[in-house]
Amino acid sequence: MKRYDEEFKKGVIRRFMEGETMAALVRETGVNKQTLYKWKQELVRTEDGEVDKEKLAMRKEIRELRMEVEILKKAALIFGRGG
């Protein structure tokens, strides 16, 4: 069983929170998907040890909005060329 340092874990989860897909991170790092989800839950905790659900929800929304912006940028390029 491999051991990963905290810096590696934080880096991988930061990339996920910034919009990279879990599947891409699994392929690139070789870390099991369930392990990555566990790391995410561990790294997003409040001082009293509870999972900060509000923070997770906001990060999920940010990730989704970033994907929407990318889709709209691509659509604007496509429709801009056709007109």
Relative helix content: over 70%
Largest sheet: none
β-sheet strand percentage: under 5%
Could you say how many structural domains there are in total? Answer: 1
> What structural class is derived from the secondary structure elements?
mainly alpha
Work out the number of β strands.
Answer: 0
The dominant shape is: flat
Explain what this protein looks like in three dimensions.
Helix content is 73%, strand content 0%. It is mainly alpha-helical and 83 residues long. The protein has one domain (6-82). α1 crosses α3. It is flat, with a radius of gyration of 16 Å. It starts with 5 loop residues before the first helix and ends with a helix.
Structure characteristics:
mainly alpha, 4 helices, 0% strand, flat
Structure at a glance:
By secondary structure, this protein is mostly helical. Helix content is 73%, strand content 0%. It has four helices and no strands.
Topology of helices and strands:
Layout: H1 6-17, H2 22-29, H3 33-43, H4 53-82
Helix pairs in contact: 1-3
